[in-house]
Every structure is written in structure tokens, then in C-alpha cells.
Amino acid sequence: MAKQTTIRENREFRILSAVGIVLVVAGHLGYNLFDIGELFPYYSFHVFIFLFVSGYFYKEESEDNIGKYLLRKCRTLLLPYFAWNLFYGILTDVLHGSGFSIGEPLSLKTLFLSPFLDGHQFLYNFPAWFVPALFMIEVLNVTARKLLFLLRLDYEWLIFAGCLIAGMATVYLAAGGHVWGWYKMPGRLLFMMPGFQLGRIYRVKLEEKDTLSDGPYFLIVMTVQILITILCAGLNFSAVWVSSFANGPVVPYLTMITGIAFWLRVSKILSKNMYLSGKLAYIGRNTYSIMMHHMACFMLVKGFFYLCSLYTPLCGEFDSVMFFSEINFLYLAGGSEAGKWLYLFAGIGLPLVIANVGRWVWRSLKPVFGKASRHSRSSGR
Q: How far apart, in whole angstroms, are the C-alpha atoms of residue 22 and residue 46?
């Protein structure tokens, strides 16, 4: 008999992932609808949500066979990334032939090297810069943990403290203009690593102590955040470029903690609503697709408006020059901010369709590959 196993989904963290990706999509629209009255600016913590979730789900057993662990990460993170990177590279070259100037030409550099340097090579998929960075963080994490285990050190707090010190040093150097050029890549990893380790610390040291009721919890988090907002010169920073730090090396990590703490408790509350939590969890299961494709989906919306400007009396003020040359150009019909909802729905909804089509194609092809693999093994006997 086939052994049947049931994996219980962590609904709370699925919802947290959904919150993170919605904030990313809204952030790329400049839509501050979800920042709670400018109290929790997206760019002060939203990238760290995904690091926190990844660190939370890290398993110690990974250190028993690092090769197998990294092979699995290559399959789940890098393989789909490079497949889509090739797709967007080809698309970029085709669009260059149609008058667009967005993105770099397809080359070995833009296919395989640029993703690890900045991830903005083709621009239509630039939010996915996070994927190669996360892979490198996973490599550094498991390697450091294996080394400390061999040294028989009680390493959880040690790793978190070490990563936090390295991250703050990186912020200090970046604010002084010393993290640039080739230093951006290692600087990005050092800056982001504390977010990953925070997820691990939360799971093994703090989660069981997270029992404060909602009222006092939100009072503490929001009081701290209000004080930070009033006393500091701006909370946003750029994780990808390791820049725009206005308040020294401590505040970025403080806002990382408060932002994650706020939305983690919101996610816990939402997880108790069966209907709403199910919808959000579905988004949370497809963050990879949304991260990869939402900018391209924005382009589809703009393309629709462009066609309207050509063939109908509508959208006469559409700026076709910006459309062909600037990935962040946003056309709002009638100049209304409410038009950003259309982009938001497209940026989340269309990648969900792409993810479903991809799964359907894989299910259709999997039996074929399975038969080919069995035939190959049989022929080799």
C-alpha cells in the first residue's frame, strides 16, 4: 500500500508571505495604501518578510547532507529563475526590435552573471533579483551552521548576533559611500542575512513565548514605531542597492523587527478566518510567480492603454515615449490614483494564472518524463 502523509500547512506564515508580496507589488506602484497611515513604510521592512519566513522554515537536518540540501535549493529557486530569465531575455530582444529600449540585450552575462550582481538585467522581471540573493544566503547559512556545529558551539544566538553586527557594519559603510560596484553583492548579503536569522531565532527561541494578547502587543509595537517615525529622518531604505540609509545602522533593523512583528500578529488574527485565510494562503503559496511576473503584467496593462490611445478616442494623454523606454512609467486613466487598483489586481491575479498554467503543464509532462526515465534505467540494466 502506498504510504499516505498529510502535511499541515502553517497558515499564519502563508498569510505573512501573502502580505509581503502584496506590499512588494504595491510598492512598485508607489501605492501607499497598506502602510497604515505612513506608520509602516513598505521599504523599511517588506523584503525582510521573505527572509524571515525562509529562516523560520529552515531545518537543522539540512546540515546532515549539505549537498542534497543545496541541490534541492537549486531545483526550487535557481532552475525556475534561470528558465524565466531566459524567457525575459528573449522577450527583451524581441521588444528591442519593436522600438522598446527597456532592459539589456540577451547575453551570457545577462543570463548567468547579472542575476547574482544586481538582478535588473532585463527589467521586466527585476523584482526577482531576490531569488539568487536568497539562494546565496541559504548557502552561507547552512555552511556557517555546519562549521559551528563541528566546533560544538551553541550557535543560534551566536549566528544571529554575528550576522546583526556584520549587517550594521555594512549599513555604516554604505552610508559612508563605501558599498558600491562589486561590493554591492556581498554588501547585500550581509545586510539581508539578519532577517533570515531572525526567522530562525523566532522559531526556536521566541515563538513559544509569543503569548501576549493582541491589545498590549499592538500597543507596544505601534508605540515604538510612532517614536521611530517621529524621531528619525525617514525609514525607507533599498535592500537591493544597499543604500538610502538615513538614520545609521540600528534603525533599519529596528524597523525590520517592528514591521514584521506588526504583520505577523495581523497574519495570526487573519488565519482564524477560514474563508479569508484560505484566499490569502493561496496568494502566499504563489509568491514566486507574483515576484517574477508582476512588472511584466503591469506592462500588459499599459499596453492595453497604449492600444486605446492609438485606436480609440480614449487615453489621448498616454505618453508612448515613456511606455517604450521606462519600466516604472505608470499611466493612470483620468489621472486618478484609484487606477492603481487595476495594476494591483493584474500584478497579483495574472501571475496566479501563470502559476496554475505552469503546474498544469508540469502535471501533463511529468508522466512522459517518468516513462522516459524508467525506460532509460531499464535499458541500462
A: 9
% of the chain with per-residue pLDDT over 90: 84
**What is the SS3 string spanning the chain?**
CCCCCCCCCCHHHHHHHHHHHHHHHHHHCCCCCCCCCCCCCHHHCHHHHHHHHHHHCCCHHHHHCHHHHHHHHHHHHHHHHHHHHHHHHHHHHHHHCCCCCCCCCCCHHHHHHHHHHCCCCCCCCHHHHHHHHHHHHHHHHHHHHHHHHHCCCCCHHHHHHHHHHHHHHHHHHHHCCCCCHHHHHHHHHHHHHHHHHHHHHHHHHHHHHCCCCHHHHHHHHHHHHHHHHHHCCCCCCECCCCECCCCCCCHHHHHHHHHHHHHHHHHHHHCCCHHHHHHHHHHHCCHHHHHHHHHHHHHHHHHHHHHHHHHCCCCCCCCHHHHHHCCCCCCCHHHCHHHHHHHHHHHHHHHHHHHHHHHHHHHHHHHHHHHHHHHHHHHCC
Cβ atoms 281, 15 nearer than 8 A: yes
Which pLDDT score is estimated for 376?
46
The pLDDT tens digits of the residues spanning 5-34 come to 334 689 999 999 999 999 999 999 999 989
Residue with the three cell numbers 512588494:
24
275 grid coordinates: 474563508
What confidence tens digit (pLDDT) does each residue in 159-173 have?
Answer: 999 999 999 999 999
Q: Are 120 and 126 in contact (CB under 8 A)?
A: yes
CA dist., res. 258 & res. 303, Å (int): 39
User: pLDDT, tens digit, for every residue of 219-278?
Assistant: 999 999 999 999 999 999 999 999 999 999 999 999 999 999 999 999 999 999 999 999
pTM above 0.70? Answer: yes
Confidence of residue 367 (pLDDT cuts 50, 70, 90): confident
139: amino acid identity, one letter: V
Asked if 159 contacts 145 with a C-beta cutoff of 8 angstroms, the reply is yes
